[in-house]
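Hi P.,

Sorry for the delay on this. The queue was packed all week, but I finally got your sequence through. Input first:
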Amino acid sequence: MHIYPTRPAVHVAFAGAVVLLAGVIGQRPPIIAWGAAILIALVFARAAALVSVSRIRNAGFEMVWSEEKKVVATVRGAEVELAAEVRNRDNLAARYVHLRPVASSHLLVSLEPTMGEVPAGGRLHVTVRVQTPRVGRHAIHGLSLEVQGAPGLFEVPLTFANPYGIEVLPRPFSPLLLSARGGRSRREAELGRPGPMRGDGVDLRELRELLPGDSFKRIAWRASARRGKLIVREFEHDERDVVWLVLDASVEHWAGVVGKAPLDYGIDEVAAAARKHLGRGDSVGLAVFGGRLRGLLEPDRGPRHAHHIALALTLSTATYDADRSELEEREVAARVLEHIRPLEPKFGRIKKYDLDRLAFHAEAAMSRAPFRATTPEAPTQREQSLRKYLAAFGIESPARSDSEKIRTEEAMNRFFGRLAKRKPRPSLVHVWAPGPDYAKPEFVQALSQLRRVGATIRWTTPRVELPADPRDSVMAQAVTQAVLLRSHTARKRAERVLARMGVRMQRIRRYLPAESESP
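Then the structure:
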């Protein structure tokens, strides 16, 4: 147990030292005795504080959550209010200061009251307000405070390890969390009737220019002769759409301020498209990429499938896998050891270099975790256990700084080729990803295969946003503007490349609680 002096204790010690020094210089025994008495009194005050805090801890000084469940589900951008209690089972009151949360950096947590007194044999009610700027599984790991001794000259820091999970889903799925669960209450009326879909049919949809991937048998030769360019017939038939949503969740899209990174907006935009099509009664599938295929959901419909999509967007974009995390195995072990020591005091003797023993105890301690986590990808089983501990307790793992763009583009091209051969055939493919710098042959071929089976391709490109801080220097503001200009130019160039290949660009208008943004 560590004990630290407060500011008044430092002032008293300085005054006692000055009085003692003045008595020695002036050779005045009464003054020397006075200064020595001050310093001796500080020693006794320190011992008394240490004894009183030890007594309070041994009697029972703890923090418990007043909530029934140890996990709460909410949406990005919301505020959750939780209730906790600090209980004191001793027959002496405990005075504390600097009550603060120990929580994930992806949460904004505030407490009330931050200082006060826990009565003897009583409890103190604490209100915890949590703001959720980022999708994912996060946690409040506990509370920390300083308990002061009776004179108030010394304080002892204490930490209550009691994790509470915060599961943050994409914002468009907020009606899913507010609706009743089970039975017919979770059903939603399908909006509208089956709409006209491109494909084999008898009704003419339109006459348009020939695009890459169109079949030559659909060419309208008379119309082409009159207009001097190749024109094709587009037919339609009534059917519910089969929609595929493709998300590029590469680690570089997490760069930026928490809550305003490109992928923060991208997850919400894909979720909004999913909810829109599910509300119409369409079958919606999801594919998440990040260097490789990270998550895949077959097309389905209904509120249960909407919940699966929300979870897939939350979990598949995480950075716990070894190839997406900036943390090496020893850095992961250091975080696990720092978290497990206050949670399980009997594991306090584990050495930081004894990774095998640490992984064994981490597996045992996961029974107290708020989340049930899947095993992340890692080279060894030991590292998988350590990374699984981070995911189960909502401990953040920073994204790797290396780009995954090339590997993601290759994986998406292969997926587009396979998607054109799947049954049922996709009628709409909505992609959220950066566009290509130029028309690569393999990319053009993959999109041509999709268009050949009658699929409409819509594309949304991410937009980089860097908040302007008036406190930044002129050089920093100039760098920010240069980065934004370069990003805007690359996005416009990619959109022109996609438009020439017959891809429809999807514009997204964003609305934030405090401000509205236009693309």
